[in-house]
Design a protein that fits this description.
Layout lengths: L3 E7 L3 H14 L6 E7 L4 H7 L9 E5 L5 H11 L4 E5 L3 E3 L3 H8 L5 E5 L2 E5 L12 E3 L2 E4 L4 E3 L5 E2 L9 E5 H7 L20 H9 L3 E4 L5 E5 L6 H23 L4 H10 L24 H22 L1 H7 L19
Parallel strand pairs: 1-2, 1-4, 2-3, 6-13, 7-14
Antiparallel strand pairs: 4-12, 5-14, 6-12, 8-9, 9-10, 11-13
Helix pairs in contact: 1-2, 7-9, 8-9, 9-10
């Protein structure tokens, strides 16, 4: 039985996926017992054919179509079908270091290790504008650029906060994932933003609450691709808008009710009538009229995301029921069943 299962949810990004699989060919030269599960939430023929190409046959790839476009459904389907004791989740737009899988394999020889991850370094696809460097923030867990899911760390293996292991490079013991209740909603289409949750933070919170071991794995680094479209104020606004939705979801779920939402939302509603009512694109025209200051853009995204989610919870009791679900193992979106094999 493979000890490590590499799980790659992907949706309509075959070019990026091809780069990841090519990198995995180099990573697995030592022939560690690992399987690669490509979970295709876009169900594209081009992705299926890519996984079947002869140059990737040595990877032990399993192509798995997923009947939901949500990230958490892809992660759960991969986890359910995996054979490994350790699950190594990756975004489809990373490039792994040559020691990525081997380092995870070796680190999890420690039976007490529950969660771990390495660096996530930038692979800029164009020269970044000067303001990108100002987004890096340093703390005791590393040097972080949140908007692009990047983290730099120096030194050897050491204990870290579970919340500083990012979903694009996320190694978790399978038994821990199952006990945690799994991932919360993430990676949803924009028109379904109201159903967004806090993703892998649910698993990280379980690891922290149970006092389980979480480590930085020095040689398990990856490069995370940053295309030009992400190096814009519009993207920064949307990224912080989505994070505010996730933060609001966490707060509502923690309290178990939405009693705090009406009071806060009424206060924010008094700010003005600029918020779009359409749910098709939750950020509406606001993204086309952004301030010139980066910090103002971030603040606006955080404010608008919080207002949006809190208002939606107040308006629709079904959204509150969605937030308070025990788990999301068998659903992508409300009413969308994801059938997992037994």
């Amino acid at each position: 039985m493979p000890e490590v299962s590499v799980i790659i949810p992907t949706c309509a990004r075959p070019v990026q996926l091809e780069g990841l699989l090519a990198g995995l060919c180099r990573t697995l030269e030592r022939r560690f017992p690992a399987e690669v599960l490509v979970v295709d939430t876009g169900r594209q023929t081009v992705v299926r054919d890519l996984c079947a190409e002869s140059r990737f046959r040595g990877l032990n790839i399993r192509y798995i179509p997923c009947f939901s476009r949500t990230l958490h459904a892809g992660r759960h389907l991969g986890a359910r079908l995996s054979a490994g004791d350790v699950l190594l989740f990756a975004d489809d737009d990373i490039v792994p270091s040559a020691t990525w899988v081997a380092a995870v394999h070796d680190a999890f020889r420690d039976p007490e290790l529950a969660l771990g991850g390495g660096e996530c370094l930038p692979k800029y696809e164009a020269e970044p504008p000067p303001w990108v460097d100002t987004l890096w923030k340093e703390n005791e867990h590393g040097n972080l650029l949140f908007a692009f899911s990047l983290i730099r760390r120096s030194g050897g293996a050491r204990a870290i906060s579970p919340f500083y292991v990012f979903g694009c490079n996320y190694a978790v013991r399978k038994s821990v994932l199952m006990k945690s209740g799994g991932f919360h909603p993430d990676g949803l289409p924009a028109e379904h933003m109201r159903f967004r949750g806090d993703g892998e933070s649910s698993v990280s919170a379980y690891v922290q609450d149970e006092g389980l071991k979480c480590m930085h794995i020095p040689d398990a680094g990856v490069w995370h691709c940053v295309p030009p479209a992400r190096m814009t104020f519009e993207y920064i606004y949307r990224r912080y808008f989505m994070q505010a939705v996730s933060d609001s979801y966490t707060k509502v779920r923690r309290k178990g009710c939405a009693d705090w939402v009406p009071r806060y939302t009424r206060m924010l509603d008094g700010i003005g009538k600029i918020w779009p009512r359409s749910r098709a694109l939750p950020w509406g025209p606001a993204v086309r009229h952004l301030p010139q200051s980066l910090q103002s853009v971030i603040a606006l995204g955080c404010r608008d995301g919080a207002i949006f989610h809190q208002r939606e919870v107040r308006r629709d009791s079904r959204l509150l029921q969605w937030i308070l679900r025990n788990d999301y193992w068998d659903v992508g979106l409300p009413g969308e069943k994801v059938n997992h094999p037994a």
